[in-house]
What we know:
This protein has helices spanning 3-13, 46-49, 58-70, 81-94, 105-124, 143-147, 152-155, 173-179, 203-216, 238-241, 267-270, 286-301, 304-325, 348-356, 379-393, and strands spanning 25-29, 32-35, 40-43, 98-102, 130-134, 165-168, 184-189, 192-193, 199-200, 219-223, 247-250, 261-265, 329-335, 338-343, 359-360, 362-363, 368-371. By secondary structure, it is an alpha/beta fold. Strand 10 (219-223), helix 10 (238-241) and strand 11 (247-250) form a beta-alpha-beta unit. The model has no long low-confidence stretch (mean pLDDT 98). Pyridoxal-5'-phosphate binds at residues 104-106, 109, 138-140, 190, 194-195, 223, 225-226, 251-252, 261.
Amino acid sequence: MEQQEYIHIAEENLIHTYNRYPVVFEKGDGVYLYDINGKKYLDFGAGIAVFALGYNNKEYNDAIKAQVDRLIHTSNLFYHAPLAEAAKKVVKASCMDRVFFTNSGTEAIEGAIKLARKYAYLKDNRTDHEIIAMHHSFHGRSLGALSVTGNVKYQEAFRPLIGGVKFAEFNCLESVLEQITDRTCAIILEPVQGEGGIYPATAEFLEGLQSICREKDILLIFDEIQCGMGRTGSMFAWQQYGVKPDIVTMAKALGCGIPVGAFAAEERVAKAFVPGDHGTTYGGNPLACAAVSKVFDLFEKLDLVEHVKEVSAYLEAGLDTLVEKYDIVKERRGKGLMQGLELTIPVGEVILRALDLGLVLISAGSQTIRFVPPLIITKEQIDEMLEKLQKAIQ
Ligand SMILES: *Cc1c(COP(=O)(O)O)cnc(C)c1O
C-alpha cells in the first residue's frame, strides 16, 4: 500500500485529536527513521523525548523479546523479578525511597496528586487542600493532570476540573507566595517546561520554592517526565540545581518505547499510601519492568549522561549560530539535549520543509522548534541536522 492509502484509512477510523505529519514510518535504526518507501529521516524528536537509546538497540530489543517469551503480565497481586529489579534501579537513580509504576506520564501525575493530598489529609483531616501549578505547564490530559496544566485552551471545554488548583508564574517566586494558603499541600512544576516552549527554571526559583516548602511542610513535586532520564545532562534535572523534590514523576524515556511511567517519593511521604489507596492493573508489569531495568543498565553501560553533557554543548553552540545568522530565529533556550529555538513566525512550515529534507523536528508551542534527539546523538549527526535545518529555514 502507498503512504496516502494508510493515511486515508487512519483518518477514516481514528478520532481526530491530532494533526499528523504526512508520513508513515516503518522502522528505525539508531537515530534514523525510515518511512514505508525507504526514505531515511534523521530524528530529532525521538517520539517526543522517548527513545533515548535510539531505535533498534540490540540489547534492549533482546531483553524485551526474552521477557515476552517468559511472562508478560501478572497483575500487582503478585511479585516478579523484573518488578523488584526495576524498582531498585529507579529508587537509586532518583535518590528517592519508594516508587509506584504507572502506564503513562499522565497517570504518574495522577498518583503524585493523590499522594500529596493523602499526605496532607493525614496531617489535618481536611478535605479542601490546594495545589499550586504553573502557567504554561503541561502535565497530561486526564482530568486530574489537566487540572494542573496551565493552558486554558486545553481545559476550557472540559470543566469542571478538579478543585483546589491555583496557578502561579513560572520563575516568579513572588507569584507563588501570593497563592499559598494554610490549605496548600503541594507545588507542582517541570524543572524545564517542555510543551510550554522549553523554559528552564532558574536556580533562585527552585531554591526559593524548596525553602518555602520546607518551612510550611508543603510537598514539592517535580514533573521530570520529559526533562528527566539524562536528557538535561544529569539523570534528573533537579540534580543539577541541587534542589530535591519530595515527589518526582517520570515516564517518556523511562521505558524507551514500552509504555511505562512512575512516581517516586521520599519515605515520609510514600508511607501516606496504604493498601487500597492506589492501584493499577497493568502498571509495572513484567514487560514494562524488563524494559525499565534494561534502560538503566544501558544508561550506565553507554555512559549516556556524560555523553549528553559533551554533545549538548555542541548542539547549543550550533543553534546559537542560527540565532545570529537568521532574522527569523529569535532565541535559543534549554538544557542539555532539551533545546528550543523560538522563531518570529509559526514553525509549522519549517518543520514540514525539514521533513521533506529528511529531518524530523517537533514543536513546543506555535513558535518554538523543540530539539529532543535520542541521547546517543553524535556531533556529526548534529551537524547533519543543522545543515538540513538551515536549508529548511532558507
Ligand atoms: C508528556 C508529558 C506528560 C504526559 O505524559 P503521557 O505519557 O503523555 O501521559 C506529563 N508531563 C510532562 C512534562 C510531559 O512532557
